[in-house]
Amino acid sequence: MATSQAMTQKPTDRVNGLDTQRFVETVDAVKHDTTLARFEFRARNQWIGGMVTRTSVQDFYGAGAEDRSRAEPFTFTSSEPPVLLGANEGAGAGEVLLHALASCVASTAVLHATARGIRIDSIATELKGEVDLRGLLGLDSAVRPGYQRITVKMAITADCSDAQLDELLQAVRDHSPMYDSISRPVAVVLERVA
Amino acid sequence: MATSQAMTQKPTDRVNGLDTQRFVETVDAVKHDTTLARFEFRARNQWIGGMVTRTSVQDFYGAGAEDRSRAEPFTFTSSEPPVLLGANEGAGAGEVLLHALASCVASTAVLHATARGIRIDSIATELKGEVDLRGLLGLDSAVRPGYQRITVKMAITADCSDAQLDELLQAVRDHSPMYDSISRPVAVVLERVA
After folding, report:
1. Predicted ipTM?
2. Best of A12, A25, A40, A41 to disrupt the B interface by mutation (most B CBs within 10 Å)?
3. Do residues B147 and B130 lie in contact, with contact meaning Cβ atoms separated by under 8 Å?
4. Which residues contact A31 (CB under 8 A, 6 or more apart)?
5. Closest residue of A to B90, CA-based?
């Protein structure tokens, strides 16, 4: 099977490590049937004790079907450092959010660079997020519990001009799903179930 | 050292796996010096190729000092499934965000339950987030790139009434840093550096 598949497949064009033919096919498919664009991502989490919880991620819905590509779930342990009553059993929730944002702005840059024919050499980002613990602890209702500000400094090198890189960064601000989810309000519904 | 420390330490009261004495001391310290409440979390991310990036998390500032409690960084690989042009090298950015939210609402519930003297038996959450790929791909400017809606179903059992659990869930909505960061806008500054 693998051999015959390899023999009948055309050699793949890869730009920035992406299969450009598949990329074009994906965009065309979504253009022709917008229902293929609907995705539902999922996660399950369980409290272990203290500040420690464990998250499992495996199935999702997208491109018109339940995805079956993952034989095993991804699992993550989160906790907090001692100063926040944990014992560093895992990264903290606030740090995990920065990870989500970091990976999203980088991969969005890669997608939009590829669409523009820009070949990227490197992307490295540094993120900082400020939070005031009084919000979490309920000590001052004027202090929000969440991030007051997040800065993302992106160093990016590619075979294009600085002006094109600036335009690419604007595309990231406009199209990164996690940049959007954090910088603009998302309807989050938290409800208790039996 | 360990023996003499154990001998001089008072036996710790633990509720929900948390050191309640330390918890009270933390709240008191922040009340007396609000600058101790200021935290800055950090992450570094590097593009590996295609949709694959790697994030490293270690140092942060909080409680008036640079934290030195982590000898090694936490590292995470993120990618996407084949239908989103990756090869499942790691969970996707959207799933990582759900993980951040899940761990935060659970640990916030534990903190506020402990403050109320509620002993929790179990917390399990299921999260679903809807996103439309047309936003990421820039195919329709009326479609936001990020989550359109996230639902969090929390099953929680504890030594208290249903009314107290409902009140606890409201405290989570009001005080969870990641619930706040996702449901309300955060100032995110993305800039290019040399």
Report:
1. 0.94
2. A41
3. yes
4. B139
5. A74
Q: Is B136 in CB contact (< 8 Å) with chain A?
A: yes
Read off the amino acid at residue A66: E
Contact B103 A128 (CB under 8 A): no
Q: Determine contact: B111 vs chain A, CB below 8 A.
A: yes
Q: Which of B55, B103, B99 is nearest to B79 (CA)?
A: B55
pTM: 0.94
- B94-142 tens-digit pLDDT: 999 999 999 999 999 999 999 999 999 999 999 999 999 999 999 999 9
- State the pairing for strand pair B149-158/A187-193: parallel
Query: Could you tell me which chain A residue has the CA closest to the CA of B126?
Result: A44
| pLDDT tens string B41-64 | 999 999 999 999 999 999 999 999
d(CA B134, CA A27): 9
Task: Tell if the CB–CB gap between B55 and A99 is shorter than 8 Å.
Answer: yes
Q: How many residues are given for chain A?
A: 194
Place of tokens 């290019």: B192
CB B41 within 8 A of CB A98: yes
For residue B84, the 8-state DSSP code is G
- Residue B13 pLDDT: 82
Interface with chain B: mutation pick from A19, A42, A45, A137, highest number of B CBs within 10 Å: A45
